[in-house]
Amino acid sequence: MRGLVLLIAGALALGAQNNAATEKEQGPILRALAEELDRSRTLQLAGVETPYFIEYSLDDLHGFAAVASHGAIISSNATRLRLPRVQVRVGDYGFDNTNYIFSDFFGRIGGARLPLEDDYGVLRHHYWLLTDRAFKGAVEAIARKRSALRNVTVTEEVNDYAKAKPEALVQDLRPISMREGTWTSLARELSALFCHYPALTGSQVEVESSFSNTYYLNTEGTRVRYPDDLFTVRIRAGAQAPDGMPVRDSMGVHARTPGAIPPQPALERLVRELASNLTSLLTAPAGEDYSGPVLVEEAASPQLFAQLIGANLGLTRKPVAEPGRTPPVPSSELEGRMGARILPDWMDIVDDPTQGEYRGHQLLGYFPIDLEGVVPRPLTVIEKGSVKNFLLTRQPVRGFEGSNGRARLPGAFGAKAPVFSNLFVKARETKSAQELKKNLLDMVTQRGKPYGLIIRKLDFPTMATPDELRRLSAASGQRGGATRLTATPMLVFRVYPDGKEELVRGMRFRGLNVRSLRDIIAASDTDNIFDFIGNGSPLPPAGVAGYVSGHTVVAPSVLFEDLELDRIEEDWPKLPVVPAPALASCK
Amino acid sequence: MKLFSLFLLVTGGSFAQSPLLGLLSEELHRNFQVLSRKADPPAYYIAYAVTDQETANVSATLGVITGNDRRKMRVLDVTVRVGTPALDNYHTIRGEMGHFTAGIPIALDDSPDAIKLKLWSETDRCYRLAAQRLINIRTNKEVRVADKEDSHDFSREQPEKFAAEAPRLLFDDAAWAARMRKLSAPFAKYPSILNSGLAVTAQREVKYLVNTEGTRVSHGQPFSRVTIQAQAKASDGMDLATFDAFTAADPANLPKDAEIAAAVDKVASDLNQLLDAPLVDPFVGPAILSGRAAGVFFHEIFGHRVEGHRLKDESDGQTFAKSVGSPVLPEFISVTFDPTLRQAAGEDLNGFYAFDDEGVKARRVTLVDGGILKTFLMSRTPVPGFESSNGHGRRQPGAEVVARQSNLLVESTKQVPEARLKEMLLEEIKRQNKPYGFYFQEITGGFTNTGRRGIQAFKVIPLVVYRVYADGKQELVRGADIVGTPLASFNKIIATGQKLEVFNGYCGAESGNVPVSAVSPSILVSELEVQKKESSRDRPPLLSPPVISTGASK
User: Which one of A329, A440, B324, B456 has the largest count of C-beta atoms within 10 Å of its C-beta?
Assistant: First the structure.
């Protein structure tokens, strides 16, 4: 599951599976792609190189996005796009043109667009040219890779591509109803609610509706067509606290079917909740450096697991490079730690893309088949606290060959990126929410601390600007923190021994990473469900565009014996010289 | 000047003002009241510019639609100047002029709360950047020897009042989609053409500008364009392309199908012939540039060098810095920029506007009179010897204003009929004892053929070029690149034709892409240097095209 330009999510059970669709029922797109794919097998260059594997995909998108602020539409765009992707592999499964630093450089077809009408001939014409370019690029890349290998020794003797069983999954196309007017007025009306919160000087509501059909074919015989839709309502707001600190928050509501977006009154409650939290934050006291027990609950718990576990479940492979030009490839914190204990032994984590719903909540991470035409199965990634499995694509990595169907985003060096789907964090030993809070207070008292901390929401996906992320990253490095970026907590409460809570602002984690999870000492018997749209990065931006993946994380609240948080100390910008304009209308 | 103020009185009184102008004005004054009195450093000038665009596009290839969309946007550009007109935050330091505006989107309707909040927060952001940069400039000034030039950073100009709305965008998407399908289909008859397409764009643009000197203008312009393009690859790998375009203010005035179909046929057959055309050899000799080619040439080679702000930039070539009052072109050539001209040679001009992007009234400016350089294209950034704007401060929304071209007009007092110009070329070939000369029919360059996006600026790319032999025979060639010092070529203009041709396009430079036109007769030059274009190593496609009927056959 992935998206384009706007967003996307997994397919749904709506289109009944119809694997036995006849050629005619499959329509001109599948037929044109299949026939041109077949003809492309005959490509040959210099009498030697021929393709051993070719894949075609096509993303057919009907999108609509609108942004409103204070009751007015700021932008409103309908998008109709058909994007092709063509990959050609020359050589063989053992050694081919990929996993080389310039694999993506040659024969790139970035930005290519297809006609919007189903014309068999014109589609074939486009795929003919795209395949020609991709094939010539592949031949060039393998030649360069061979010559690079004369100068470098390779430490990993790993195949370049794993075999996979052919699949046929051709689902019916469903009717598309854009309902642009409904989405537009929803955005307008939700955004107008901010006039009741004059202290929030910046706010907007974004709505996105995207219907997409994904096609995938390869020369091994796989034929795929499935719907891949996503609907989003995103709320953002921000303001400057009296001491100059910028304060803001966002909330994304996502669904794979329009009907799963909550009704307007429920969305209005979310807007009010976000707005009033943020208004309270503006006047909340700034936090102080803290080291001690922390209770992580509500959205913050799944947000934390998404970052610390979810983003570390894929393994990356270093491409063949020219000597001295090895590119920095981000590596997982769990790499090489198969079987290592990272959580208490009463916790398990399962990645399950096959589930579409959990306790009445539609799961965003559902997908029927991945970008390489591999059907995923549920996968226990952490068992009894220890690393049990990694997410794999058809790109072999050291120690692992054979996909488990997690290729959900385009990747680098000719590969796809492994990405998690629905992450279920399970605890076998649980306590009620009240008991957890009591445990926290007991620890506070025992250690003679004035208060403990409860974290209820993180800035994840993040609203931070690239500049702020740089500062955040630098600061976490300087103060002995993790080198990896972690989301800033948004809603942090001091909880005093008498149980009274006090909101504080301006805190960030210090040294938070996978190892911190070993300090979990208890979990709740309740689930916190959090949906988000990612782009493969550990800290994705809110409202990311391009190819994206949908995720749901279900996790209990967790009590950490020890976590460290710092007060953010920066030179805040001065308050504006001119006061904000008085708002005229508030109906 | 009397006439001028009379005009203000009339227009100012006779047009209803848009509610947006009122909103902009109100918030402008509220912000300026405080920023000019209570802020340190104080602001001495603020301007709000809003560009409101509605665009419709339809494109097709081989009889099927490739795109069909409509966009609306309203973009805000804020200018805050702190310091004094003599030295402010826009002062150029080592060629860098500062960038403050972000071109943010604002509410599409005239909703007061939403618009005022954006105006306020954007003014605050720009003020902070402006104040910061002024401090840097002052520090920089103190430690460095004063720049040679001592001109101010901002000119004084007459406040303007004007309000006019552009007509509503009338564009029938379905009808155009049917036309684009039909007109793009014939390319299918040419199997060696790899990519081809037609696109039509229609746009309504209204610009609003208010500033703290009292300027309050709104003015607009409809615009529409049909483009035709095709690409192919010669057997040696050389990429070849041909294109054509039609421009009209009102989409209803775009050509009828028959005329577009003829252009499609010519784009396709020119390209098909180019595939088999011989490659050029390096050559120096006489050549004719068609009116359109000459227009592009003047725009690229001459026009960009007379943009005033280049004289302030130490890193620039400053070709003409000391040439005012001296001959820069043959005495029979004059060059004028006239943004007030709506049409030339029967075609609507793309470089028309009523006010520039600093709210200065557009006017006709003679740059070169009888070969003598008179002045420069000026924005409100003065250069030594030229203290005022002449209405050429332009930008794409989101960029800072610099001096840009408008409608470039080449005028000649040494005109001969086109047939005579060709005879003169043959005489010149014989006189120089050359085997042949060149005829450049189509050139593309800083102008683009693809609408407002993806523009390649500053490149002169001949598309359709003929070798002309001494006996008058013409032969299409490919791979010709014009090299050498093109400026020198202008001094070698022998004569011009009589018929004016128009090239409408977009020009990309520091302040983004702006619509421009060039109008010129064809010119005969005694000497032009041509070399072989660098070629791609990629071969044509390995497999033959899939043989199938396309949408073209529907």
Answer: A440
Contact list, A45 vs chain B (CB under 8 Å): 542
Q: How many structural domains is chain A composed of? A: 2
Q: Mark whether A268 and A297 lie in a shared domain.
A: no
Residue A5 located in a structural domain: no
The larger pLDDT score, comparing residue B143 to residue B154, is at B154
Average pLDDT over chain B reads 88
Give the whole-angstrom CA distance, residue A312 versus residue A93. Answer: 27
Q: Dihedral angle at the C-alpha atoms of B436, B441, B443, B449, nearest 10 degrees?
A: -160
H helix or E strand, kind and range, residue B125: helix B112-143
Residues A41, A80, single domain; the answer is yes
Residues of A in contact with B67 (CB under 8 A): 80, 113, 116
* Nearest chain A alpha carbon to B549: A121
Q: Do B114 and A69 touch (CB under 8 A)?
A: yes
Return the pLDDT at B317.
Answer: 56
Q: In Å, how far is A129's CA from the nearest CA of chain B?
A: 7
**Do A175 and A296 share a structural domain?**
no
CATH of the domain at A190: 3.30.2290.10
Are residue A443 and residue A517 in the same domain, yes or no? yes
Closest-CA residue in chain A for B110? Answer: A72
Residue of A41, A64, A69, A248 for testing the chain B interface, max B β-carbons within 10 Å: A69
- Per-residue burial over B285-321, b if 16 or more Cβ lie within 10 Å, else e, is bbbbbbbbbbbbbbbbbbbbbbbbbbbbbeeeeebbb
Lowest pLDDT segment from B61-75, B393-407, B440-454: B440-454
Among B321, B308, B526, CA closest to B431: B526
Decide if A553 contacts A425 (C-beta within 8 A).
Answer: yes
**What residues of A are in contact with residue B105 (Cβ under 8 Å)?**
67, 74-75
Query: Which residues in B lie closer than 8 A to residue A202 (C-beta atoms)?
Result: 117, 121
At B385, the amino acid letter reads: G
Q: Which of B60, B120, B195 sits opposite A581 (nearest CB)?
A: B120
Q: Which residue of chain B is at minimal alpha-carbon distance from A573?
A: B128
The sign one gets for the Cα dihedral B337, B339, B340, B346 is: positive
User: Cβ–Cβ of A201/B63 closer than 8 Å?
Assistant: no
Q: Say if residue A242 is in the same domain as residue A118.
A: yes
Query: Are A52 and A87 a contacting pair, CB within 8 Å?
Result: no
pLDDT at residue B500 is higher than 90: yes
Q: Please report which confidence band the pLDDT of residue B450 belongs to, taking 50, 70 and 90 as the band edges.
A: very low
Query: Across the interface, which of B61, B115, B117 has its CB nearest the CB of A122?
Result: B61
pTM of this prediction?
0.90
CB B493 within 8 A of CB B523: yes
Of B62, B124, B542, the CB nearest to A132: B542
Residues A140 and A180 in one domain: yes
Query: Are A256 and A353 part of one and the same domain?
Result: no
Q: Is residue A283 part of a domain?
A: no
- Note down the domain range covering A140: 23-276
A514 falls within a domain: yes
How close does chain B come to A561, measured CA to CA in Å? 43
Residue of A nearest to B197 (CA): A115
Q: Which residues of A touch B128 (CB under 8 A)?
A: 573
The structural domains of chain B, ordered by start, are 2-276 (3.30.2290.10), 283-532 (no CATH)
Please report the ipTM that was assigned to this predicted complex: 0.87
Nearest CA in chain B to A139: B538
Q: Which residues contact B33 (CB under 8 A, 6 or more apart)?
A: none
Q: Say what the pLDDT of residue B73 is.
A: 93
Q: Please answer yes or no on whether B113 and A583 come within 8 Å at the CB atom.
A: yes
Question: Is A90 in the same domain as A224?
Answer: yes
- Residue A2's pLDDT band, with cuts at 50, 70 and 90, is very low
Query: pLDDT tens, A219-262?
Result: 999 999 999 999 999 999 999 999 999 999 999 999 999 999 99
Going across the sheet that includes A528-534, the strands are A386-387, A379-383, A347-351, A422-427, A549-555, A528-534
- Range in B121-125, B315-319, B538-542 the model is least confident about: B315-319
